[in-house]
Design a protein that fits this description.
By secondary structure, the protein is of the alpha/beta class. It has a single domain (4-313), classed as Metal-dependent hydrolases (TIM Barrel), CATH 3.20.20.140. The protein is built from eleven helices and twelve strands. It has helices at residues 50-60, 80-99, 115-128, 154-163, 184-204, 206-209, 224-236, 250-254, 269-276, 296-299, 305-313; strands at 4-11, 25-28, 33-36, 41-42, 62-68, 104-106, 108-110, 134-138, 166-170, 214-217, 257-260, 281-282. Strands 7-8-9-10-11-12 form a six-stranded parallel β-sheet. It has a three-stranded parallel β-sheet with strand order 1-5-6. Strands 2-3-4 form a three-stranded antiparallel β-sheet, with no helix packed on it. Strand 5, helix 2 and strand 6 (104-106) form a beta-alpha-beta unit. The model has no long low-confidence stretch (mean pLDDT 95).
């Protein structure tokens, strides 16, 4: 069994003193479960236990892991003041859990719904934890109607660029009622949200303007690799809005992005590697959730050996 050098996409819901006293938080340690007054809940027992992650890492021969908050903890419905209070708990708690274990490192949360606050957080983390300038952020939110190519996000990209930071873009559920059936908000909507974020970054020129930051797309980049040719075709024939002066073709821009390897398809993973570059495909598990790579050696057994070996050895 080959060693996996680094898991860049593992989740922990950090539990440190003060969680139960926060407004809008219902923490029940006896179950355990965590829910929020504005909606969203989490009841996967392992996600609260870093020792469970470490035991899984031992079993799967994963040497190190970056830990980020799972999406129910993003709390996109909070106003800016409440979000600041929540992130004031969440990010120090992630650091406390990660720094308590030498094989874990924190991936700090950025509130995508409040880009000015997110920009402040980047500056604070860069000053306090200069060796851990890594962040996770929702890829966008259809419910709240914003997109990450809007001018409001330019200061955030500039701050990430100045700090040479890394941001993992992770999808959240949308609002299309057609996705209510068959778990499609996760199975189909999530990949589309991630591809939408990739398209906005590539086609707006953000990736040209901020070359020192690093953007990682969750879940193999969603459906981005499958549609990059269509995006570029729209640019080349100058469909309304698709062509922006000075912006590279989508295939070239995508080579500045990274993606984790969670595609659940041995035939799709080479497509992802072609779209982003094989050296830009990193190992991610989405631990402890069943839609991830919980048994990566078995689940990736059919992946072409050289590509699998490269992904398992990747040091981000």
């Amino acid at each position: 069994m080959q060693t996996i050098a680094l898991d860049i996409h593992a989740h922990i819901a950090p539990v440190v003193p003060g969680l139960a006293e926060l407004p809008g938080v219902d923490w029940q340690p006896d179950k355990p479960s965590l829910s929020f007054a504005e909606g969203g809940a989490l009841a996967a027992p392992s996600v609260f236990r870093p020792e469970a992650l470490l035991a899984w890492m031992d079993k799967q021969r994963v040497q190190r892991a970056w830990i980020s908050a799972p999406p129910p903890l993003y709390r996109l419905g909070l106003d800016e003041a409440a979000t600041a209070q929540w992130v004031g708990y969440l990010n120090p708690a992630l650091a406390a859990v990660a720094f308590g274990h030498d094989r874990l490192a924190p991936v700090f949360h950025l509130p995508v719904q409040h880009p000015a606050l997110a920009t402040e957080i980047v500056g604070r983390i860069a000053a306090e934890h200069p060796d851990h300038v890594r962040f996770a952020m929702a890829a966008g939110s259809a419910r709240h109607g914003f997109s990450i190519s809007s001018p409001a996000f330019e200061p955030l990209w500039a701050a990430l660029n100045q700090a040479r930071g890394t941001v993992l873009l992770h999808p959240v559920s949308g609002i299309d009622p057609r996705l209510d059936a068959f778990f499609l908000h996760n199975l189909l909507g999530g990949p589309g949200e991630t591809a939408l974020a990739a398209a906005h970054l590539a086609m707006s020129g953000v990736l040209e303007r901020y070359t020192a930051m690093r953007v990682i797309l969750a879940h193999g980049g969603g459906s981005a690799a499958a549609v990059v040719g269509r995006l570029e075709r729209g640019q080349s024939v100058r469909r309304p809005g698709a062509y922006v002066e000075g912006v590279r073709p989508a295939r070239q821009a995508f080579r500045d992005l990274y993606a984790d390897c969670i595609t659940h398809s041995a035939s799709m993973l080479p497509v992802v590697a072609e779209a982003f570059g094989a050296e830009h495909v990193l190992f991610g598990s989405d631990w402890p959730f069943s839609m991830g790579l919980i048994d990566p050696h078995a689940q990736m057994a059919e992946v072409e050996p050289a590509l699998r070996a490269r992904i398992f050895a990747a040091e981000a």
